[in-house]
Amino acid sequence: MKNLSTINKAVFIYGENNLGKSNLFKSIDFLYKTFDTFNFPFFSLFLKFNLQKKEKNKNNIIENIFNEKLNDNVISNLISENKRIGSNEHEMIIKVSFINKENKKGHYEIRFNDKEITFEELKFQKEKRLSTIFSISSKEKNLDSEFIFNNLDFKSEILYALEKFFGKHSFIALITGSLKFSGINFKEKALNKDFVDLINFIKSTKLINVDDLNNQNNEKIDNLISGEIDINDSKKEEELLKIANELTYFYKFIYKDYSKVFYLFTLIGNKKKYELYVKYNNKDANVSFKNESNGSKKLLNVFFMIKSILKGDSVIIDEIDNGIHDVLLKDILDNLVQYLNENDNIQIGQVIATTHNTYLMTSLKANNIYILDHLNKDEEISLYNLSEFNRKAQDNNNLEKRYRSGLYGGIPYTYFDTSTFKDLIDEIEEGNK
After folding, report:
1. What are the structural domain ranges in the chain?
2. Element containing residue 265 per DSSP (H, E)
3. d(CA 285, CA 208)
4. Rounded to an integer, what distance in angstroms lies between the CA atom of residue 15 and that of residue 410?
């Protein structure tokens, strides 16, 4: 944390298969899911019930129902789905250090045992040094109430929720869940604006899976290629039309034969069905985007990646090169990385991507490249930057050639032999006769 002074705007992570590159993506996805486990309506009813209950024995059944709903298995299920195999005797710890748009540092940490959250802490730079905003465990709960709360009643509700539900839900989940269905005015009255901005910043990172064509990371539209909206939903229709115009410019930069990208709308009952189409320069008929190549469809995610970054978001994208031509992707990313490096002083975002495309290395700088590799014989895994590597990794070196030669580690070593493999197959099949 002490060494965090600047943000690397473009990070590309290399490493052999089955080493854990995708786990970096999954760990952030897991973290953000822990922010969204708390159901506000149930808590509101539960709180009201407990504050007003008079006949303890009579209300035990009702209390058990609320406890069951609020102390559900969301966190324990998430832990079991994401904890490394064979690591049951160890805590799972996620630590995130960051610098926000005002150039202030922060650090968030959360720990889990096999079933629940055991510790959660947020530190943030106030004035010139890091201050603890909250530090919570089952034994101790320290909150910077002045920085967090504006409303004493809401503070009392959250403190009550902490006592009842911490472990099953994180503090951030309790805060965001309790405010999820509240109006903007209530949020402003209940919480300090600086704290709200800080939590929103922590939650702002976008996760993109190139293979997921059903969710192009757009909060307002569930599916860009086709879907339906309510006939009177003018806001979503306007959003679709705006996206179509943006996609037209994006794809015309990439494909010379694209003339226009647009939506066709069809009225069916009280719904409007929409479908994305392409108009080509040399074709009279319009072509449904459903019939475009997988690579063209996956470029939708690259479009949203760039758009999010330009808005100031951090974007983590897994297997960015999957299904997209290496020369095309390199041209797009070369331009993006150059823009990020040249505009480091303005409030633009960050891209973190896992990739196998070593062709990108021919134009990337050493500080843009990270390698995931075995640290030692004990199979510990480490992520290191080429600019800090103990062997020479200067920008004027051929980084791709040196990486492929094994100089920097993080490449697969195979002992596969086709002739030997054929003999083994023949032997197995002969034995089965």
Report:
1. 9-19+319-433, 36-202, 206-297
2. strand 258-268
3. 32
4. 4
